[in-house]
Records
---
Amino acid sequence: MVEQVIQVAVHDLKRNSESFETVSGNAHLKVSETVERVVGELHAMYASRASKSHGRFAASSDNYPAQTYLDEFRKGDFKDFATLTAKLMTTLTVQARRKPGATGGHVLFAHLEKDEQRFLLVAIINDKLGAALTKSFDIASVEHLDLDGFRFAGRINMTAWTNSADRYIGFLKGKGNVAEYFKEFLGCDSTVQDLEDTRTLVRVLNGFAEPAKGFVKDKQAFLQKAYDICQRYIRDNEPLDLETFSNELFPENPKELAKSLGDPDVGLGDGFVPKKRALSPMVKFSAKTRLWSVEFNRQALTDGKIVYALSTPTASELSAGNKCAR
């Protein structure tokens, strides 16, 4: 949840018959209750989308100047928002002209705070025709912002960037390469980290399946199914699509799973091929101390071959060679 909306600007990326142009709008939108609600809804919807890519600024600031403008904004104590958004609009317009899949719309920039961290949220929004009931009980056409339908959005965690985190930029990936110009606009290097992303996937799935969350009835069966699906992606050498994955793994409530997987604070993006060696915690339990270690397949818990009670851990079907006496 967004804790504070600090600054908001809105400009237009206008598409004409041949190209794109920038139309300057309001660089200092008054942060009213309505503006706070719109920014909060946009951020929540961005967070709930599973199909994202994550990364860091590309090495070449000459080719990707957004990081230079943001650095100037940061060094200026985050005050000159008008200059920042004007420069970013110029960069966005240049990138839109280069990509055939680019679309125009209202470009909203929001400088916000969440969990004691500063972010810049950028989203391209279009208008939508709706209807409203007038005071005279007539029905009139009304244009409004299509918050549900936005396809292009990105978020930069400026606090994480300052602290030299590995990943601090996220953007909606979409299908195909339609969001490519938005990635280029942000100057994001979204190099895939298969092993680390697989570990993050396993951690999120484990947390989602905890009984206390109330989503999953049988944690072991859920994790086994996730493991089997990931193994298929490995065999086919196919990158993981988190929305498709959510629909297959948890058809009872795929949106809730996609929301957990797409949490921008987790930083998990799709497009990676799962790594087999990082998947084992989903189907195996292992623990060790200085004097002993134990490892078993989680299916043993489901089948009752291993029963854990807080006072008496018990294992059955041990061979004579695996039994020991005091």
---
Amino acid sequence: MSRERLKEWVPEALQALGGKAKVIDVAKQIWKMHSKDLSIADDLFFTWQYDMRWAALTLRDKGVLEEVDELPRGVWALKV
């Protein structure tokens, strides 16, 4: 499994959390939904929270997530 999967899981987690959430809650939701996948993911098991932030940056660049300057610090949101 590669960190590319996190580009699918971040929006999925945000959707489950109502479209907007604190970063820590996004991480908790990803763990809740994908802990089994992450547990067997070799190195990604140790880096997935860092890689989740990389995925969010990529998703912002693609217009999937709101820009950080439009949200309170530490909050991510799906672009509507």
